[in-house]
Amino acid sequence: MLVATAALMTSCLTAHDVELRFVWDTEAAEELTNQKDVTGTVCGAMFDCVEALQADQGLFLKFPSEDAAAAAKQPNDELVRGIFLMRWSEGVPVEDKEFVTFVLENALQSGKEIPDALGTPNPLGSDLGTARP
Questions:
Q1: CA dist list (Å): 33 to 30, 47, 54
Q2: CA distances, 87 to each of 2, 55, 56, 59, 66 (Å)
Q3: What is the pTM of this model?
Q4: CA angle 6, 15, 124 (to 5 degrees)
Q5: Beta-strand relationship, 58-62 and 36-37
Q6: CA-to-CA distance for 50 and 36, rounded, in angstroms?
Q7: What confidence tens digit (pLDDT) does each residue in 50-108 have?
Q8: Residue 128, pLDDT above cutoff 50
Q9: How far apart are the C-alpha atoms of 40 and 119, rounded to whole Å?
Q10: Alpha-carbon gap, residue 49 to 38, rounded angstroms
Q11: Taking residues 25-49, what's their average pLDDT?
């Protein structure tokens, strides 16, 4: 019953509802170290973004539209869910990139951020999203 209620509550949420500052604060704190909100210095001045997060591993931006994100994309950047741009620093392990991307791709999507609650194995083998009482 709880899972069904959560699914109904989150079914209207979109990528625009995701806030970068909350996506990786606990789930990927080891993969993205020294996370810092840089929205005030980056958005508007350097990019047409609405949110910016800096970590030792890269710069992560949220844009108001897919067009704005595509316009800012450089060849090595990764676009996620159409409006998020991930600009990785050199030397970030592939496994860390994949995990961080997975967390963002599934943020606020019913059941995907809590795979154990639905009885499905976590594809990454960690305690990401372990159901809480």
A1: 6, 23, 9
A2: 37, 10, 11, 5, 16
A3: 0.72
A4: 70
A5: unpaired
A6: 15
A7: 999 999 999 999 999 999 999 999 999 999 999 999 999 999 999 999 999 999 999 87
A8: no
A9: 41
A10: 11
A11: 93
Assign 3-class secondary structure to the chain: CHHHHHHHHHCCCCHHHCCHHHHCCCCCCCCCCCCEECHHHHECCCECCCEEEEECCEEEEECCCHHHHHHHCCCCCEEECCCEEEEECCCCCHHHHHHHHHHHHHCCCCCCCCHHHHCCCCCCCCCCCCCCC
Residue 123 has pLDDT above 90, yes or no: no
What is the residue whose two structure tokens read 């967390």? Answer: 103
Q: Can you read off the two tokens belonging to residue 12?
A: 């209207």
Contact between 95 and 74 under an 8 Å Cβ cutoff? The reply is no
Determine the Cα–Cα distance for residues 133 and 82; give it in Å rounded to an integer: 33
